[in-house]
Design goal:
heterodimer; A: 172 residues; mainly alpha; Arc Repressor Mutant, subunit A; B: mainly alpha
């Protein structure tokens, strides 16, 4: 998806994401913050998606993921506040994940990208439609024109390959 | 969910037969910290978006089940008030009625004004007229009856 295509539908996607965030936080300020982050993340996903695809489902998934991420950060900060001595320490404390966790997340993401790159193009496309966009077999069949049974078979083959390769790499 | 059920769901996932909803359920089950190494690979494969969506759904479901503290407080206060009112009602039912009547009668006797003379006979003609007018205002029904009788006699 190109940037201009994304900008064209950005307003609509933003309102969808804002609704998800408002349902979760019930505070306009928090919801706006989360939506802002979610829009940036959504653009990163959309860069890898083909043009002309409906990304509203993906937008909702990204928004939910951002909501949970913010919620966990806040919970962690609250727990720290009990342990820390004063409010000053809480304000100065970085509430994001630790460098170790960020490094591990980056490694995992890189490893997944490398393993997915080993798949055949069609398998990769279907795997990502299931994993990233969260589409059902029926939806994938409608969008790609591939029969449902074939979609399930190709997704299965892709998943088994990824599973075998990831297990091998993790054992090393 | 038991470990055997989770394993069955994983097998179904690898066969490409799971629905997005089942995958979210699987993601929810795999968020536990003490899962086997093999299942960690599945967690990676499900991806952060599915894991996040499962966590979102779980938090929202938990909120729906758990009422807010204010709601709980309101419910407790209204329950106590209801019990108190019911108790008060039954207590009033058990009280003797006579006591209330006696009290009422005493009060009425205390608040009643001193009896007035039957006729206005003393004073100047003007004072007698004023006395008559006051008595007429105070007891209009008696004077209406008198007026009616006078009219009938005529």
């Amino acid at each position: 998806m190109t940037q201009s295509e994304f900008e064209h539908i950005a307003q609509q996607l933003r309102s969808q994401m804002l609704k998800v965030a408002l349902d979760f936080f019930e505070s306009q300020d928090d919801a706006e913050d989360v939506t802002q982050d979610a829009m940036v993340q959504l653009w990163c996903y959309c860069e890898r998606i083909d043009s002309g695809r409906n990304v509203s489902g993906l937008a909702v998934r990204v928004a939910k993921n951002c909501c949970v991420s913010h919620y966990r950060k806040r919970q962690a900060a609250r727990q720290q506040s009990f342990a820390d001595i004063g409010l000053r320490a809480l304000r100065q404390k970085d509430t994001s994940e630790s460098p170790q966790e960020l490094l591990e997340a980056d490694d995992t993401r890189r490893m997944m990208d490398e393993v997915i790159a080993l798949l055949k193009p069609r398998e990769r496309q279907l795997f990502e439609m299931r994993q990233t966009e969260g589409l059902s077999t029926e939806q994938i069949s409608e969008q790609t024109g591939i029969p449902k049974a074939s979609v399930a078979a190709m997704v299965s083959a892709a998943r088994k390959k990824v599973f075998t390769e990831l297990t091998r790499r993790m054992k090393q | 969910m038991k470990n055997e059920d989770i394993q069955q769901l994983i097998d179904k996932y690898l066969e490409g037969e799971t629905s997005p909803q089942e995958e979210r359920q699987l993601a929810h089950e795999l968020q536990r910290p003490d899962i086997p190494e093999e299942w960690q690979t599945i967690r990676m494969m499900l991806g952060e978006l599915t894991m996040g969506e499962a966590a979102y759904d779980a938090i929202m479901a938990q909120r729906r089940q758990k009422p807010s503290a204010i709601l709980v407080a309101i419910r407790i206060i209204s329950s106590i008030a209801a019990v108190y009112l019911v108790g008060l009602f039954f207590w009033l039912q058990t009280q003797p009625v006579e006591k209330a009547e006696i009290t009422y009668t005493n009060k009425v006797e205390q608040t009643q004004p001193a009896p007035q003379p039957q006729y206005c006979t003393e004073g100047t003609p003007r004072e007698i007229l004023m006395c008559y007018m006051e008595r007429r205002k105070a007891q209009p029904h008696i004077y209406q009856q008198l007026k009616q009788k006078t009219y009938e006699n005529q």
